[in-house]
Amino acid sequence: MTLRARIPARVLLAALLLGPATLAAPRTAPPGHGPAARRTRLAAALGDGYALVFGQPITDTVRLRPHGHMMYLLGLREPGSALLLAGKRAPRLPRGRAIAFLADGRPSFVRFHGFSVRPGATTAQRLGIDAALASSDTKPTLVDLLARWLPRKTTLLVPGYRGPDEGAIRWHAETVVRRLRGARPDLRVTALDGHLGALRAIKEPGELRAIEQAISKTVLMFEAARTHIRAGGREEHVDAALAAAVRRARSRAAFPFIVAAGAHSLTPHYFENRGPLRAGDMLIVDAAATHGGYACDVTRTFPVSGKFRPRQRAVYKVLLDAHRAALDAVRPGARFKDLRTAALGVLRKHGFADGWLHAVGHHVGLDVHDPGPTRLASGMVIAVEPGVYLRQDGFGLRIEDVVAVTDDGYRLLTAALPRDPDAIERWLAR
After folding, report:
1. Cβ-based neighbour number of residue 69 at 10 Å
2. Helix or strand or coil: residue 107?
3. Percent of the residues in the chain that have a pLDDT greater than 90, as a whole number
4. 101, 16 in Cβ contact below 8 A?
């Protein structure tokens, strides 16, 4: 899934949603891994400050995907959660050093929303934290508690929630932080993104295995869609095949699929998936499954007729060379801009540089566009996705693979899906 061209970032302060939450199935993590170890590392980075992290809000119409921060630090999947964490050198709060705020515990509320985790000592013990409290609109509210508990002139760090898909959290964040600042003007509120992004970017072995499982399920999705890629078909048939396959794999889509044929392939973020597959068209399929909350992100471009036309093949081979150049630039210490420069050099040589409309790649993990620094390090997992969109030719092309950054380069995780044009034609003909 393509990442937008860089937008000027404004640091948006975070806050809470005063609603419910649920616990992921408990797993035993090896020493140094898992939510408890991650909270310990984050507490060390906080020093004498405190972190406030939030999950997705509750809505009446949309079941939002679990937010990566809460999955990473608490293993909570359902919306409405919040975590207050004291830094390693910070004074202990009245209810402990790690406190979760969960759903209103009223049975009618829990039953209506289908939540299974309730506030209380049992949940706190399962989560490995000091307290699991209810959050509701009654007194005292979370703002009241924070205003009462936090030491004077302390630092409170909150995530920015500035992504295009985080508007619901952002709205609550700005509201609650504004109220907290009104009650406690002495507090220093600053961004948590650097600390938390750096932690999440380096994947534990279990996280990498989960991403690999998500990729295996994604391969099954593409296989299921393959027989629907033919002239006379429709984009929605391919979309439906992807959706059915991800359900059969007991998984969920990592994001809304992109199935873009013909002129639709000129739009990197085309989500309508309601158009014909015509002979001679190119078809971009950008789709992915999840496993254990972890996502992947894969894009392939196919000739609808089963064979590339000469012009299509020529442009595709250039893009494939650009893609390989970007992959060859992946190594510890490289930056995303180095990958872009490598790919852009190939495209510019052939006159296609103006046809690239988006970023070269992004981190992958609990979120499709996971947080992380621009400089790569061993242990990171990233997507690499150059594309060209040639309006004069009436088609767009994109190739996206997921790789694990290693000590001496990278390991390609999505090699099971063909990229070479001859291999793609053979795959389609099976």
Report:
1. 27
2. helix
3. 75
4. yes
CA distance 21 to 70: 10
Residue 168, pLDDT score: 82
Task: Name the pLDDT band for 37 (thresholds 50, 70, 90).
Answer: very high
In 329-420, alpha helices (H)? 336-349
Beta-carbon contacts of residue 152 (< 8 Å; ≥ 6 apart) = 186
**For residue 179, pLDDT beyond 60:** yes
Strands across the sheet with 258-261, in order?
A: 258-261, 282-287, 298-303
The CATH number of the structural domain formed by 205-429 is 3.90.230.10
Q: Supply the pLDDT for residue 62.
A: 59
CATH 3.40.350.10 domain extents, the chain: 35-201
| Type of residue found at 102 | L
Distance CA 133, CA 121 (A): 9
Query: Are the C-beta atoms of 102 and 75 separated by less than 8 Å?
Result: no
Name the pLDDT band for 29 (thresholds 50, 70, 90): low
Give Cα separations from 116 to 107, 111, 135 (angstroms). 10, 9, 15
pLDDT, one tens digit per residue, over 361-419 is: 999 999 999 999 999 999 999 999 999 999 999 999 999 999 999 999 999 999 999 99
Tokens, residue 393? 């030719």
In the chain, ranges of CATH 3.90.230.10 domains:
205-429
Cα separation values, 41 from 33, 84, 196, Å: 10, 15, 10
Token duo for residue 52? 């406030």
The answer to whether the predicted template modeling score (pTM) of the entire model surpasses 0.70 is yes
Residue 326 sits at φ, ψ, to 5 deg, of -65, -40
Please give the average per-residue pLDDT across 321-335, as a whole number: 98
Q: Select from 225, 158, 221, 156 the least CA-distant residue to 192.
A: 158
Cα 249 to chain centroid distance, Å, stands at 20
Strand order in the sheet with 361-363: 361-363, 381-384, 401-406, 409-412
CATH fit for domain 35-201, picks 3.40.350.10, 3.30.428.10, 3.40.50.460, 2.60.40.1080? 3.40.350.10
Q: Is the dihedral of CA 57, 16, 192, 145 positive or negative?
A: negative
